[in-house]
Amino acid sequence: MIKKKSLKFSTKGNCDIINISDDIADALSSSGLRDGTVTVFCVGSTGGIMTCEYEPGLAADIKDFFQKIIPQNKSYKHDETWGDANGHSHLRASLLGSSVSVPFIDKKLVLGTWQQVVFIDFDNRPRSREVILQFIGEPR
Amino acid sequence: MIKKKSLKFSTKGNCDIINISDDIADALSSSGLRDGTVTVFCVGSTGGIMTCEYEPGLAADIKDFFQKIIPQNKSYKHDETWGDANGHSHLRASLLGSSVSVPFIDKKLVLGTWQQVVFIDFDNRPRSREVILQFIGEPR
Amino acid sequence: MIKKKSLKFSTKGNCDIINISDDIADALSSSGLRDGTVTVFCVGSTGGIMTCEYEPGLAADIKDFFQKIIPQNKSYKHDETWGDANGHSHLRASLLGSSVSVPFIDKKLVLGTWQQVVFIDFDNRPRSREVILQFIGEPR
Predict the structure, then answer these.
(1) How many CA atoms lie within 13 A of B20 on its CB side?
(2) Residue of B99, B26, B8, B90 whose CA lies nearest to C109
(3) pLDDT tens readout for residues B81-127
(4) Residue C30 exposed, middle or buried by CB count within 10 Å (0-12, 13-18, 19+)
């Protein structure tokens, strides 16, 4: 059985990290599924999906890390194509990845105690975002 | 229902980026499936799969980025094992990842307007490549 | 059909790389499934899953690479939150990713000749670990 859910939310851009774990758990609860896998997919090429411990210190470290390896204040050839100055956003998003697949067993995601599924917005401005959850599994 | 498709193509190696979005959409069209998820998997340990906006400026940025963080002209311990001078290729591929999972709804991949699924060949020479598409979903 | 399997093992931490390809192949053999996709998921936020050629030279290169871009001997804001000095472990794990999805066809994973699925433990101490395998596919 396949059950889909679209999550829509606003972000501040600039490495804003949104914890979507509770939204995924809620969608799983109302899906009627017991065991399976959910694919969490970011629609758009300047956002990413990852798992991490969601706490402000690590969020700052993540921001620092991306600024170090893919700096915002540097010129990218992508910027010459469109002039929207978000070449760094595209590079960061491609590197991190746009999907994570998480198994669920007995109606629960198999995340660790401190492990969350988060969306990270690498764009250089506030955005309205959509994340698609596709659940594939066996009914209860 | 499960539907598989093997994509075969040639690359130039050296960060050659191949846009396989249309091939995936075509395979979905002929799969007879309506809703589900496709897993796009790179066979081999020196290629990767990612999503990105496919345009020449960003392709050049991606090449520059990998050359900066995992330079080709540097010695790697992997090269001592085999002598094929592609240690950088293996490192880059492992970092980027070998699979992406993309949901589809009503016979369409849920990609953003500028978001493509691409194969990137990190090897240091032209290669013949295979990418496996595994569709899991509900029939029409 | 959904078949799950939990892999449990001990690691040395500090970029210890564990080849779990044979465990996945064994679980596939006893699953009764023929065609489908397995999601390999790391429970916990300081470990990662990737594919690579599993040989000691590349394992050393991987360790060197992560030490270069996310050094252990550097202070992270995450460390101020908990005082467990593993901020680098969290950053590395988030960057690499916690899941890989691998198709299987006719009871075999579609891995390349030299391509393995490995778990990498980024934590700064030995750990007991769990990896969940979730197989979705058609029975034989």
Answers:
(1) 33
(2) B99
(3) 878 899 999 999 999 999 999 999 999 999 999 999 999 999 999 99
(4) exposed
In this complex, which of C39, C76, C82 lies closest to A103 when CB atoms are compared?
Answer: C39
A128/B contact by beta carbon, under 8 A: no
Q: Report how many domains make up chain B.
A: 1
pTM: 0.97
CA nearest neighbour of C60 among B69, B78, B80: B78
The reply to whether residue C134 touches residue A103, judged by beta carbons under 8 angstroms, is yes
Domain assignment of residue A84, given as a range: 2-139
- CATH number of the domain that A60 lies in? 2.60.120.460
Closest chain C residue to B48 measured between Cα atoms?
Answer: C51
Interface predicted TM-score (ipTM): 0.96
Residue B139 touches partner A, C-beta closer than 8 Å: no
Q: Does A111 touch chain C (CB under 8 A)?
A: yes
3-state secondary structure of A67: helix
Provide the 8-state DSSP code for B43. Answer: -
- What's the rounded Cα separation, in Å, for the pair B4 and C111? 15
